[in-house]
Amino acid sequence: MCSQPSRRQTPMFTEHAEARQRALVEVTQESFFSLAEPCEMERFDEAATVFAAGADGAPARWLRAEVSFAGAYSGRVAVTMPYSPASGLFANFVGAS
């Protein structure tokens, strides 16, 4: 009797949405020593409105970080956020005040 070797199927990107979300929250909490939680797009839009203008009324600066990955599937993870909380996260990451 001869059997075909089983082939590993590539996981569907949507099948792992919850695992990706948990990983991002864990990395934020463990690496940046900050509270993180997933939010719906409506809450993100509310936060974006708060940071839309700086204290002086000038447009706020936003930062974007992006990491590419490859494996069973490939892609990029990007995080875009206002400068103020981003600089706080970076300070936490490097142990600065």
Notes on the structure:
The protein is α+β, with helices and mostly antiparallel strands and 97 residues long. It has a domain at 63-97. The chain is 39% helix and 16% strand. A two-stranded antiparallel ribbon has the order 1-2. The mean pLDDT is 77.
Count of helices?
A: 3
Rounded mean pLDDT score? 77
Strand content is 15-25%
- Broad structural category: alpha+beta
Q: Give the overall silhouette.
A: elongated
**What pattern of helices and strands is seen along the backbone?**
HHEEH
Largest sheet: 2 strands, antiparallel
Provide the spatial order of strands within the biggest beta sheet: 1-2
List segments where confidence is low: pLDDT < 50 over at least 5 consecutive residues: none
Helical content class:
25-40%
Strand segment count: 2
- What's the gyration radius in Å? 19 Å
Q: What distance separates the N and C termini?
A: 68 Å
Core attributes:
97 residues; single chain; 16% strand; 39% helix; alpha+beta; 2 strands
